[in-house]
Design a protein that fits this description.
- This protein is mostly helical and 282 residues long.
- It has 2 domains: 21-59; 67-281, MetI-like (MetI-like fold, Orthogonal Bundle), CATH 1.10.3720.10.
- It has helices at residues 3-8, 24-58, 68-80, 83-115, 117-131, 135-146, 150-174, 178-186, 191-228, 234-244, 247-275, 277-281.
Length: 282
Amino acid sequence: MELHDIWRTPRHARPARVEARVPPGALARSHRLRVDVLLVPLALLLFLGAWDLLVRWKHYPSFILPLPGQVWARFLTLLADGSLLRNAGVTLVEVFAGLGLGLVVAAVIGYGLAKSPLLERILSPYIVASQAVPIVALAPLLVIWFGFGTLSKVLVCALTVFFPSLVNTIVGIRSVDPDLRALMRSLQASAWQTFKLLEVPAALPIFFGGLKVSVTLAVIGAVVGEFVSADRGLGFLVNLARGLLDTPMLFVALFTLVVIALALYSSVALLEHVVLRWKRVS
């Protein structure tokens, strides 16, 4: 059939056109994403503008509430002399070491408690009692026992993340469907196969929920340990700024801690998105 014959053909006899169809929710999700991306910097600009207006209106001195421009200038100074990156690096080492130690110990003990009700009845009162002691009160004791170095800060950080990670591990392992456990037994699966193929995938969504909380608590734990005794780290920088009444430097240290916590939380959320892709597909 020639091209000009197509137009002479009755409409009902013409070849059907193939049209690309967009999924119904795709456009809405794309629009929401664009709005969210625009709202974040807009909210930040509004916050900085309100902050600047408040300081100028009340005529606050810089040691009470500095202008955003003064904080930015102090940030550039600390960045240029390397003190900000040096102290932030020390805090990050403590955060990662404490987070790793706390998660591993919590996962091992939590798995044992989830599998053994008798062990849970024996250890649970002591674990709960340990959480009744504020970490701020326990940190000086850890410094006395383990010295003024990095180890005491890592232990404070590990203790901060231990309990929420423990609870999420227990809940995750116990959330496995009993019918699936029976299926694994009927297939004569070994304990390792049950753990790898059933318990870990079932517990991962709850584990990631606890991990998001733990990464932010790890930052808090590291700073608490540095508050007690430290000569480096962002907690030390906060103490130094407080003693010198250098409020712009105090704000720089606090904002750096916020950025670290947000970066860690976002990294865990991204890892969760990648690892749990199978759950969304199913």
